[in-house]
Amino acid sequence: MQLNLQRFSKSICLNGQEEMRTINRYLADYFRITFFGYIKCFADGTHLCLSTDSQWQERFYRDFYVYGVFHKTLESYHSGSMLWSSAKDQTSFNAFRQHSGIDHGITLIEKRLGSCEFFTFGAEQHNSRILNFYFNHMDILWRHTFYFKDKGVDLIRKAQADRFILPRCNIANNEITIASLSDDLINQALRAAPIKRYALTMEGFTIYLTPSEAQCTAYVAQGKRLKEIGTLMKLSPRTVEVHLNHVKHKLFCSTTAEMIAKIQRYSNLQCIFN
Which spans in 137-225 are helix H? Predict the structure, then answer.
């Protein structure tokens, strides 16, 4: 059974390029991310796809979709991110590089019950420094997933009504899509390398937070309230407040807002605890 190319040629996947380029134009204008694609696969084996390069999509689904890393069953994936260069099979990626001159791609993966979404970003081949941008600004990439799903809601709705089946891709993906480790193994590694104090370098001097102070502060920086933090850490709200007061004293802050501003400026604590 093959993909119905005659029907597919009339799909929004191959006819939504200009709208996709309009929605995603700021990525190129400000960050030099010149390609964006969106794929969603469902438990029933159907897919939808939108991208800023419809010509490539047509060629991909005609000649290369059987090599598509992001077109397998849901069991193949976990939420996270993946560099294109880490894929075991580079057949489709190499064809894309030759077709479009786009490389240095990264895909954010968001798995949900009954579906999995893929948000793909790429840049021109000479722009290898974009990888540094990805690693230092993952928050911008994740923010874009929300922006795209808001601005492109009508386009996505059309694609969902027009989704298609890729018969030969409805099998598990044998290659490792994400470097995913078990929670037990990760917890063992973290226990093997405990942090006794967290150092924050601020304008020429260093202050140290205890693990409890660091975790409370990170949660506050994420917008969590005292009661919620207490539940997460199995502490009373009063104990959480005491830890935060210690941090304010160490940072020479009189308010929580001032403390959060300094933490976000001088550390990445909020990225460690979640």
Answer: 138-151, 153-161, 183-192, 211-221
Q: What is the C-alpha R_g of the chain?
A: 23
Q: Strands 80-83 and 102-112, how do they pair?
A: antiparallel
The reported pTM is 0.73
- Full set of structural domains in the chain with CATH: 5-180 (3.30.450.80), 186-272 (1.10.10.10)
- Which structure tokens are listed for 2? 């093959």
CA distance 71 to 69: 6
Average pLDDT over residues 211-238: 94
User: Nearest Cα to 244, choosing from 267, 215, 205?
Assistant: 215
Residue 187 neighbours by CB distance under 10 Å: 10
Residue with structure tokens 């400000």?
30
